[in-house]
Amino acid sequence: MNIAFDAKRAYQNGTGLGHYSRTLISSLATRFPKHQYYLCAPKITNRFSVAPFANMQNIVPINFPGKALRSVWRSNWVKADLLSRNINLYHGLSHEIPIGIQRTSIKSVVTIHDLIFERYPRQYNPIDVIIYRKKFKYACNNADRIIAISRQTKDDIVSFYKIPEEKIDICYQSCNPSFSKPVTDHQKQLIKQRYNLPDKFFLYVGSIIERKNLLRICKAINQLKETLPIPLVVIGNGDKYKLEVKEYCKQQNIESSVIFLSDDVSINELPSYKNADDFPAIYQSAIAMIYPSTFEGFGIPVLEAMWSKTPVITSNVSCMPETAGDAAILINPLSTIDMAEAMFTVATIDAVANEMIERGWKHAQNFTPEKCAEGVLKVYNSVTGNYSQ
User: Is 80 exceeded by the pLDDT of residue 386?
Assistant: First the structure.
Protein backbone atom coordinates (compact mmCIF):
# COMPACT_ATOMS: atom_id res chain seq x y z
CA MET A 1 0.00 0.00 0.00
CA ASN A 2 0.89 3.63 -0.44
CA ILE A 3 -0.01 5.23 2.89
CA ALA A 4 0.03 8.98 3.52
CA PHE A 5 -0.10 10.83 6.82
CA ASP A 6 -0.91 14.31 7.95
CA ALA A 7 2.59 15.00 9.27
CA LYS A 8 2.16 18.55 10.56
CA ARG A 9 2.35 17.41 14.20
CA ALA A 10 5.27 15.06 13.54
CA TYR A 11 7.37 17.99 12.36
CA GLN A 12 5.99 20.88 14.38
CA ASN A 13 4.67 19.59 17.70
CA GLY A 14 6.92 18.84 20.67
CA THR A 15 4.26 17.39 22.97
CA GLY A 16 1.73 14.55 22.90
CA LEU A 17 0.37 14.82 19.35
CA GLY A 18 3.87 15.12 17.96
CA HIS A 19 5.19 12.16 19.94
CA TYR A 20 2.21 10.04 18.84
CA SER A 21 2.77 10.92 15.18
CA ARG A 22 6.52 10.31 15.18
CA THR A 23 6.30 7.05 17.10
CA LEU A 24 3.48 5.59 15.01
CA ILE A 25 4.99 6.54 11.66
CA SER A 26 8.39 5.11 12.64
CA SER A 27 6.84 1.93 14.06
CA LEU A 28 4.78 1.25 10.94
CA ALA A 29 7.70 1.84 8.59
CA THR A 30 9.91 -0.48 10.65
CA ARG A 31 7.38 -3.22 11.40
CA PHE A 32 5.79 -3.29 7.92
CA PRO A 33 8.56 -2.28 5.48
CA LYS A 34 6.82 -3.52 2.32
CA HIS A 35 4.50 -0.49 2.31
CA GLN A 36 5.43 3.00 1.15
CA TYR A 37 4.87 5.88 3.57
CA TYR A 38 4.37 9.52 2.60
CA LEU A 39 4.48 12.39 5.09
CA CYS A 40 2.36 15.39 4.09
CA ALA A 41 4.11 18.27 5.81
CA PRO A 42 3.38 21.98 5.42
CA LYS A 43 6.77 22.65 7.03
CA ILE A 44 9.87 20.50 7.56
CA THR A 45 11.75 20.85 10.86
CA ASN A 46 14.44 18.90 12.71
CA ARG A 47 11.89 17.17 14.97
CA PHE A 48 11.70 14.25 12.54
CA SER A 49 13.57 12.90 9.54
CA VAL A 50 12.67 10.44 6.80
CA ALA A 51 16.38 9.80 6.09
CA PRO A 52 16.65 6.58 8.18
CA PHE A 53 13.73 4.98 6.29
CA ALA A 54 14.12 3.74 2.73
CA ASN A 55 10.33 3.36 2.41
CA MET A 56 9.43 6.90 3.50
CA GLN A 57 9.37 10.31 1.81
CA ASN A 58 7.93 13.77 2.35
CA ILE A 59 5.19 15.50 0.40
CA VAL A 60 5.45 19.28 0.71
CA PRO A 61 3.79 22.17 -1.15
CA ILE A 62 6.15 23.16 -3.95
CA ASN A 63 4.05 25.42 -6.17
CA PHE A 64 1.91 28.53 -5.82
CA PRO A 65 -0.59 28.90 -4.19
CA GLY A 66 0.22 25.91 -1.93
CA LYS A 67 3.54 27.37 -0.79
CA ALA A 68 1.85 30.66 0.11
CA LEU A 69 -1.22 29.12 1.77
CA ARG A 70 0.18 26.06 3.50
CA SER A 71 -2.76 25.59 5.89
CA VAL A 72 -5.18 25.49 2.94
CA TRP A 73 -2.87 23.07 1.15
CA ARG A 74 -2.90 20.78 4.19
CA SER A 75 -6.66 20.87 4.67
CA ASN A 76 -7.72 20.71 1.01
CA TRP A 77 -5.29 21.01 -1.91
CA VAL A 78 -3.07 18.15 -0.71
CA LYS A 79 -5.57 15.79 -2.39
CA ALA A 80 -3.98 16.52 -5.78
CA ASP A 81 -0.57 15.48 -4.47
CA LEU A 82 -2.06 12.31 -2.99
CA LEU A 83 -3.76 11.34 -6.23
CA SER A 84 -0.63 11.99 -8.29
CA ARG A 85 1.26 9.50 -6.10
CA ASN A 86 -1.47 6.84 -6.20
CA ILE A 87 -2.04 6.98 -2.45
CA ASN A 88 -4.32 4.17 -1.26
CA LEU A 89 -4.99 5.44 2.24
CA TYR A 90 -4.65 8.73 4.11
CA HIS A 91 -4.35 8.84 7.90
CA GLY A 92 -5.21 12.08 9.68
CA LEU A 93 -3.10 11.65 12.82
CA SER A 94 -4.68 14.50 14.76
CA HIS A 95 -8.41 14.93 14.32
CA GLU A 96 -8.51 16.12 10.69
CA ILE A 97 -8.80 14.85 7.13
CA PRO A 98 -8.65 16.89 3.91
CA ILE A 99 -11.94 18.38 2.84
CA GLY A 100 -13.55 16.29 0.12
CA ILE A 101 -11.21 13.30 0.36
CA GLN A 102 -14.27 11.05 0.65
CA ARG A 103 -15.14 12.02 -2.94
CA THR A 104 -11.83 10.68 -4.25
CA SER A 105 -10.58 7.11 -4.62
CA ILE A 106 -8.47 7.50 -1.48
CA LYS A 107 -9.64 5.80 1.70
CA SER A 108 -9.19 7.67 4.95
CA VAL A 109 -8.69 7.02 8.66
CA VAL A 110 -8.63 9.65 11.40
CA THR A 111 -7.24 9.44 14.93
CA ILE A 112 -9.24 11.24 17.60
CA HIS A 113 -7.18 11.77 20.75
CA ASP A 114 -9.78 13.42 22.95
CA LEU A 115 -12.80 15.71 22.95
CA ILE A 116 -11.71 17.75 25.94
CA PHE A 117 -12.85 21.00 24.36
CA GLU A 118 -16.40 19.59 24.26
CA ARG A 119 -16.29 18.68 27.95
CA TYR A 120 -14.57 21.86 29.12
CA PRO A 121 -15.34 24.54 26.50
CA ARG A 122 -14.74 27.38 28.98
CA GLN A 123 -11.07 26.43 29.13
CA TYR A 124 -10.73 27.27 25.43
CA ASN A 125 -11.10 30.32 23.25
CA PRO A 126 -14.75 30.27 22.03
CA ILE A 127 -13.63 30.67 18.42
CA ASP A 128 -11.27 27.71 18.80
CA VAL A 129 -14.13 25.57 20.14
CA ILE A 130 -16.19 26.35 17.04
CA ILE A 131 -13.26 25.55 14.71
CA TYR A 132 -12.35 22.33 16.54
CA ARG A 133 -15.94 21.13 16.58
CA LYS A 134 -16.34 21.72 12.86
CA LYS A 135 -13.08 19.92 11.98
CA PHE A 136 -13.56 17.01 14.38
CA LYS A 137 -17.17 16.35 13.41
CA TYR A 138 -16.32 16.57 9.72
CA ALA A 139 -13.52 14.05 10.14
CA CYS A 140 -15.64 11.66 12.21
CA ASN A 141 -18.53 11.78 9.75
CA ASN A 142 -16.48 11.47 6.56
CA ALA A 143 -13.49 9.26 7.37
CA ASP A 144 -13.91 5.58 6.51
CA ARG A 145 -12.78 4.55 10.02
CA ILE A 146 -12.02 6.32 13.28
CA ILE A 147 -9.21 5.39 15.65
CA ALA A 148 -9.77 6.35 19.28
CA ILE A 149 -6.71 6.18 21.52
CA SER A 150 -8.72 5.00 24.55
CA ARG A 151 -12.10 3.66 25.62
CA GLN A 152 -12.75 7.08 27.17
CA THR A 153 -12.27 8.80 23.81
CA LYS A 154 -14.43 6.26 21.96
CA ASP A 155 -17.26 6.80 24.43
CA ASP A 156 -16.98 10.56 23.99
CA ILE A 157 -17.11 10.32 20.18
CA VAL A 158 -20.29 8.28 20.43
CA SER A 159 -21.79 10.59 23.06
CA PHE A 160 -20.95 14.00 21.58
CA TYR A 161 -21.08 13.30 17.84
CA LYS A 162 -23.54 10.36 17.71
CA ILE A 163 -21.13 8.27 15.66
CA PRO A 164 -21.99 4.54 15.58
CA GLU A 165 -19.54 2.75 17.84
CA GLU A 166 -19.05 0.11 15.14
CA LYS A 167 -17.17 2.72 13.10
CA ILE A 168 -14.60 3.29 15.87
CA ASP A 169 -11.56 1.17 16.68
CA ILE A 170 -9.56 1.56 19.89
CA CYS A 171 -5.82 1.50 19.19
CA TYR A 172 -3.78 2.34 22.25
CA GLN A 173 -0.76 4.48 21.57
CA SER A 174 2.81 3.81 22.52
CA CYS A 175 5.74 6.10 23.13
CA ASN A 176 9.26 6.49 21.87
CA PRO A 177 11.17 3.22 22.48
CA SER A 178 14.07 5.23 23.90
CA PHE A 179 12.20 5.46 27.22
CA SER A 180 12.54 1.70 27.69
CA LYS A 181 16.34 1.73 27.38
CA PRO A 182 18.21 2.02 30.70
CA VAL A 183 20.31 5.15 31.04
CA THR A 184 23.68 4.72 32.75
CA ASP A 185 24.50 6.57 35.95
CA HIS A 186 27.16 8.47 34.03
CA GLN A 187 24.62 9.62 31.44
CA LYS A 188 22.19 10.64 34.16
CA GLN A 189 24.89 12.73 35.80
CA LEU A 190 25.68 14.45 32.51
CA ILE A 191 22.01 15.28 31.99
CA LYS A 192 21.70 16.59 35.55
CA GLN A 193 24.63 18.88 34.86
CA ARG A 194 23.25 19.95 31.49
CA TYR A 195 19.90 20.94 33.01
CA ASN A 196 21.19 21.92 36.45
CA LEU A 197 18.88 19.36 38.08
CA PRO A 198 18.89 18.54 41.80
CA ASP A 199 20.01 15.11 43.02
CA LYS A 200 16.44 14.17 44.00
CA PHE A 201 13.28 15.50 42.41
CA PHE A 202 9.71 14.77 41.45
CA LEU A 203 8.80 15.24 37.78
CA TYR A 204 5.86 16.83 35.97
CA VAL A 205 5.59 16.55 32.17
CA GLY A 206 2.91 18.23 30.10
CA SER A 207 1.42 21.53 29.00
CA ILE A 208 0.86 23.89 31.90
CA ILE A 209 -2.90 24.25 31.66
CA GLU A 210 -5.62 24.12 34.28
CA ARG A 211 -6.91 20.58 33.82
CA LYS A 212 -3.40 19.12 34.12
CA ASN A 213 -3.43 20.40 37.69
CA LEU A 214 0.13 21.60 38.27
CA LEU A 215 -1.02 24.11 40.88
CA ARG A 216 -2.21 21.30 43.13
CA ILE A 217 1.16 19.56 42.88
CA CYS A 218 2.76 22.82 44.01
CA LYS A 219 0.35 22.94 46.94
CA ALA A 220 1.48 19.42 47.88
CA ILE A 221 5.12 20.51 47.57
CA ASN A 222 4.32 23.39 49.93
CA GLN A 223 2.59 21.03 52.36
CA LEU A 224 5.64 18.75 52.37
CA LYS A 225 8.35 21.40 52.47
CA GLU A 226 9.26 20.71 56.11
CA THR A 227 8.96 16.90 56.17
CA LEU A 228 10.01 16.10 52.58
CA PRO A 229 11.92 19.02 51.02
CA ILE A 230 12.21 17.49 47.53
CA PRO A 231 11.77 19.87 44.56
CA LEU A 232 9.60 19.46 41.47
CA VAL A 233 11.02 19.67 37.95
CA VAL A 234 8.54 20.84 35.31
CA ILE A 235 8.87 19.96 31.62
CA GLY A 236 6.31 21.96 29.68
CA ASN A 237 5.10 25.49 29.15
CA GLY A 238 1.96 27.57 29.40
CA ASP A 239 0.51 31.04 29.53
CA LYS A 240 -2.09 32.40 31.96
CA TYR A 241 -2.29 29.31 34.16
CA LYS A 242 1.50 29.09 34.38
CA LEU A 243 1.56 32.65 35.72
CA GLU A 244 -1.03 31.63 38.32
CA VAL A 245 1.14 28.70 39.39
CA LYS A 246 4.25 30.84 39.60
CA GLU A 247 2.44 33.50 41.63
CA TYR A 248 1.36 30.85 44.14
CA CYS A 249 4.95 29.61 44.44
CA LYS A 250 6.13 33.15 45.03
CA GLN A 251 3.52 33.79 47.70
CA GLN A 252 4.41 30.56 49.51
CA ASN A 253 8.15 31.13 49.15
CA ILE A 254 8.69 27.83 47.32
CA GLU A 255 9.99 29.29 44.04
CA SER A 256 13.28 27.42 44.41
CA SER A 257 11.35 24.15 44.92
CA VAL A 258 9.53 24.29 41.56
CA ILE A 259 11.95 24.32 38.61
CA PHE A 260 10.49 25.33 35.24
CA LEU A 261 12.92 24.11 32.59
CA SER A 262 11.12 26.17 29.94
CA ASP A 263 12.15 29.37 31.72
CA ASP A 264 15.79 28.76 30.79
CA VAL A 265 16.38 30.17 27.30
CA SER A 266 19.51 28.07 26.79
CA ILE A 267 17.54 24.88 27.55
CA ASN A 268 14.79 25.79 25.11
CA GLU A 269 17.40 26.08 22.37
CA LEU A 270 18.87 22.62 22.99
CA PRO A 271 18.01 20.26 20.09
CA SER A 272 18.00 17.34 22.55
CA TYR A 273 15.34 19.16 24.59
CA LYS A 274 13.23 20.11 21.57
CA ASN A 275 13.14 16.55 20.24
CA ALA A 276 12.95 14.98 23.73
CA ASP A 277 16.18 12.97 23.35
CA ASP A 278 17.16 13.88 26.91
CA PHE A 279 13.79 13.06 28.45
CA PRO A 280 14.45 9.35 29.18
CA ALA A 281 17.43 10.31 31.35
CA ILE A 282 15.34 12.92 33.17
CA TYR A 283 12.50 10.45 33.76
CA GLN A 284 14.88 7.76 34.99
CA SER A 285 16.49 10.21 37.41
CA ALA A 286 13.19 11.21 39.04
CA ILE A 287 11.75 9.79 42.25
CA ALA A 288 8.31 9.72 40.62
CA MET A 289 6.38 11.28 37.75
CA ILE A 290 3.24 13.08 38.91
CA TYR A 291 0.37 13.45 36.44
CA PRO A 292 -2.82 14.44 38.30
CA SER A 293 -4.84 15.58 35.29
CA THR A 294 -8.59 15.85 35.72
CA PHE A 295 -9.19 14.69 32.14
CA GLU A 296 -7.14 13.19 29.31
CA GLY A 297 -7.56 11.22 26.12
CA PHE A 298 -4.76 8.85 27.11
CA GLY A 299 -1.99 10.45 29.20
CA ILE A 300 1.21 9.46 27.42
CA PRO A 301 3.60 10.76 30.15
CA VAL A 302 2.23 7.95 32.34
CA LEU A 303 3.35 5.42 29.75
CA GLU A 304 6.71 7.13 29.28
CA ALA A 305 7.31 6.91 33.03
CA MET A 306 6.36 3.22 33.24
CA TRP A 307 8.72 2.42 30.35
CA SER A 308 11.39 4.40 32.20
CA LYS A 309 10.88 2.34 35.36
CA THR A 310 9.80 5.46 37.21
CA PRO A 311 6.91 5.28 39.72
CA VAL A 312 3.74 7.10 38.70
CA ILE A 313 1.24 9.10 40.72
CA THR A 314 -1.82 9.92 38.66
CA SER A 315 -5.57 10.55 38.81
CA ASN A 316 -8.33 8.07 39.57
CA VAL A 317 -10.62 9.69 36.97
CA SER A 318 -11.00 9.92 33.18
CA CYS A 319 -8.79 7.47 31.24
CA MET A 320 -5.97 7.46 33.78
CA PRO A 321 -6.92 4.13 35.44
CA GLU A 322 -7.18 2.69 31.90
CA THR A 323 -3.68 3.91 31.03
CA ALA A 324 -2.00 3.18 34.37
CA GLY A 325 -3.67 -0.12 35.25
CA ASP A 326 -2.58 -1.42 38.65
CA ALA A 327 0.91 0.08 38.34
CA ALA A 328 0.36 3.60 39.73
CA ILE A 329 -0.88 5.26 42.87
CA LEU A 330 -4.26 6.61 41.83
CA ILE A 331 -5.40 9.69 43.72
CA ASN A 332 -8.29 12.13 43.80
CA PRO A 333 -6.78 14.89 41.61
CA LEU A 334 -8.66 17.53 43.60
CA SER A 335 -7.16 16.48 46.93
CA THR A 336 -3.87 18.06 47.94
CA ILE A 337 -3.76 15.74 50.96
CA ASP A 338 -4.03 12.63 48.77
CA MET A 339 -1.29 13.94 46.50
CA ALA A 340 1.08 14.82 49.34
CA GLU A 341 0.54 11.42 50.99
CA ALA A 342 1.28 9.61 47.71
CA MET A 343 4.45 11.65 47.15
CA PHE A 344 5.63 10.98 50.70
CA THR A 345 4.94 7.24 50.36
CA VAL A 346 6.82 6.81 47.09
CA ALA A 347 9.77 8.89 48.28
CA THR A 348 10.20 7.19 51.66
CA ILE A 349 9.11 3.55 51.28
CA ASP A 350 11.43 1.71 48.91
CA ALA A 351 9.28 -1.43 48.87
CA VAL A 352 6.31 0.52 47.51
CA ALA A 353 8.38 2.29 44.87
CA ASN A 354 10.03 -0.95 43.74
CA GLU A 355 6.69 -2.74 43.41
CA MET A 356 5.34 0.18 41.36
CA ILE A 357 8.35 -0.01 39.07
CA GLU A 358 7.88 -3.75 38.57
CA ARG A 359 4.16 -3.47 37.91
CA GLY A 360 4.69 -0.45 35.66
CA TRP A 361 7.17 -2.27 33.45
CA LYS A 362 4.85 -5.26 33.17
CA HIS A 363 1.83 -3.07 32.35
CA ALA A 364 3.82 -1.11 29.76
CA GLN A 365 4.20 -4.28 27.68
CA ASN A 366 0.54 -3.80 26.67
CA PHE A 367 1.56 -0.62 24.84
CA THR A 368 4.58 -1.55 22.77
CA PRO A 369 5.23 0.26 19.47
CA GLU A 370 4.81 -3.09 17.70
CA LYS A 371 1.35 -3.69 19.19
CA CYS A 372 0.31 -0.15 18.33
CA ALA A 373 1.51 -0.48 14.73
CA GLU A 374 -0.16 -3.87 14.33
CA GLY A 375 -3.46 -2.51 15.61
CA VAL A 376 -3.36 0.47 13.30
CA LEU A 377 -2.40 -1.60 10.23
CA LYS A 378 -5.33 -3.90 10.99
CA VAL A 379 -7.58 -0.84 10.70
CA TYR A 380 -5.93 0.13 7.40
CA ASN A 381 -6.52 -3.38 6.06
CA SER A 382 -10.17 -3.34 7.07
CA VAL A 383 -10.63 -0.11 5.12
CA THR A 384 -8.71 -1.02 1.97
CA GLY A 385 -9.40 -4.74 1.88
CA ASN A 386 -5.66 -5.35 1.60
CA TYR A 387 -4.92 -8.01 4.21
CA SER A 388 -1.36 -8.81 3.15
CA GLN A 389 1.26 -7.60 5.62
Answer: no
Q: Tell me, what's the pLDDT at 193?
A: 95
Task: Decide if pLDDT at 66 tops 80.
Answer: no
The β-bridge partners of 112 are 148
Pair type for strands 107-112 and 288-291: unpaired
The correct CATH number of 2-174+368-384 out of 3.40.50.2000, 3.30.1490.20, 3.40.50.300, 3.40.50.10860 is 3.40.50.2000
CATH fold of the domain at 177-367: Rossmann fold (3.40.50)
Give the ranges where the chain is alpha helix by DSSP (H). Answer: 8-12, 16-31, 70-72, 78-84, 116-119, 126-142, 151-161, 185-195, 214-223, 240-251, 265-268, 271-274, 279-285, 300-307, 320-324, 336-348, 350-364, 369-384
Residues of the chain with CATH 3.40.50.2000: 2-174+368-384, 177-367
The CA distance from 81 to 17, in Å, is 24
Give CA–CA dist 292/168, Å, rounded: 28
pLDDT of residue 385: 87
Q: What's the pTM value of the predicted model, to 2 decimals?
A: 0.84
Give the closest residue to 323 by CA, choosing from 275, 360, 268, 290.
360
pLDDT in tens, 113-139: 999 999 889 888 999 999 999 999 999
